[in-house]
Amino acid sequence: MSALQSPDSSCPHLDQAPLQVARTSTWGAILFAMCFPGVMACIYFVLLPRLDLGSGAKVVVAVAYTASKIIQFAFPLFWVICVERRRLSFARPGTGGWRLGLAFGLVVAMLIWVLYLGVFKNSALLASTPAMVHNKMSQFQIDTPGRYLLFTLFLAGFHSLMEEYYWRWFVFRELRQRIGVWPANVLSSLAFMAHHVVILAAFLPERFWSAVVPFSLGVAVGGGLGGHGSSHSRPPVYREVTPDRRSHSALPTAGIEQLP
To answer: Per-residue confidence at 235, pLDDT binned at 50, 70, 90?
Structure first.
């Protein structure tokens, strides 16, 4: 989730803002961007499913999820264009570092599959997880093979690219300009980790310290290390497209076993 040296070579350039936005306002925007995904995950993934909403429960959850994503991914552009009054310009992405990114992504995906099939699949840790995954799939109306496949492709493709823009181009970039590379890398990685904590805790409710926290920290460390490497050597979009995309595409195993 970080980008330095050439973050702008594959992301929109920002002209100098003609309007000086108050320092506290900018920090407010950064904090909002860091907290919003985690807060909304609590709402659409935990709170709403627990409410007695009758026959409209699935629709409410779907609307909340969709609205949260629209707001999340629209906010950086709204802030930059409408509040800071900066003008965007685009440059052609480079291809430096794609081999390293691809190799890293393949290794992460392979480790996910090996650990799941060889260690966790039949363990007590995940004994009740597949059924809970299926229940969530039903709440989000993706409990058929076709819908599940489309949702998986959405998460591993479009949604992941939008996370690249959101977390690296906006959150990390804004933090880096104010507190430096490493503090920005740590904070943006932990913020990115937050909504994963919410989701994992829903599937592993009695394993918070033994599973949820370690797995979530793995997300933060992996994103931070990959992001820091990209910040010094290659355009950020390739670190995100390869490692995280392949990791995301390796994750739906437990749920797919519950499909009818």
So the answer is: very low
